[in-house]
C-alpha cells in the first residue's frame, strides 16, 4: 500500500515504514504528525483525488528537525567585475511514515 502526499509545495510517494525529508514542519522530535493532503491511495484498488481525497490521512512521526548541507549561490557577470557569493542551509524535517488511512 502506498500514497501520494503533498507537503511544502512538493509531492512524495510514501509507504508505511518509509523515512522522508520534507520542508520544515512544526513540532518536536517524537511528535506525531497527520498529513491530510493526500492525492492518491493505492491498496486493493487505486483511488485518485480531484485534487485531494476527502477523509484520507497519512500518520507520521518526527525523527529529526535539522538543517541540510550548505548550498552556495554564486552570481557573476563576465567583464563587469560583478561577483556575489551567498549561501544558506535549508531547514528540514525527517519523518517516519507510520500508517495510511484511506
Describe, in plain words, how this protein is organized in 3D:
A hairpin with a 4-residue loop joins strand 8 (71-77) and strand 9. This protein is elongated. It contains no helices and 10 strands. The model has no long low-confidence stretch (mean pLDDT 95). It has strands at residues 2-7, 10-14, 19-23, 32-35, 38-42, 46-48, 57-67, 71-77, 82-88, 91-101. Helix content is 0%, strand content 63%. The strands form 3 sheets. The chain has a 4-stranded antiparallel sheet, with no helix packed on it. With 102 residues, the chain is mainly β.
Keywords, please?
102 residues; 10 strands; mainly beta; 4-stranded antiparallel sheet
How would you briefly describe this protein structure?
Strand 1 (2-7) and strand 2 form a beta hairpin.
List the helices and strands and how they pair.
Layout: E1 2-7, E2 10-14, E3 19-23, E4 32-35, E5 38-42, E6 46-48, E7 57-67, E8 71-77, E9 82-88, E10 91-101
Antiparallel strand pairs: 1-2, 1-5, 3-10, 4-7, 5-6, 7-10, 8-9
User: What is the residue-mean pLDDT, rounded to a whole number?
Assistant: 95
Q: N-to-C SSE series?
A: EEEEEEEEEE
Separate helix tally: 0
Mass-distribution shape: elongated
Strand order of the largest sheet: 2-1-5-6
Amino acid at each position: 500500500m502506498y500514497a501520494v502526499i503533498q507537503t511544502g509545495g512538493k509531492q512524495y510517494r510514501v509507504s508505511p515504514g518509509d523515512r522522508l525529508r520534507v520542508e520544515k514542519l512544526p513540532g518536536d522530535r517524537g511528535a506525531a504528525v497527520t498529513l491530510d493532503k493526500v492525492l492518491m491511495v493505492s491498496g486493493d484498488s487505486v483511488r485518485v483525488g480531484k485534487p485531494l481525497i476527502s477523509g484520507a490521512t497519512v500518520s507520521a512521526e518526527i525523527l529529526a528537525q535539522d538543517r541540510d548541507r550548505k548550498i552556495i549561490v554564486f552570481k557573476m557577470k563576465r567583464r563587469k567585475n560583478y561577483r556575489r557569493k551567498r549561501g544558506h542551509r535549508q531547514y528540514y524535517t525527517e519523518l517516519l511514515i507510520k500508517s495510511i488511512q484511506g
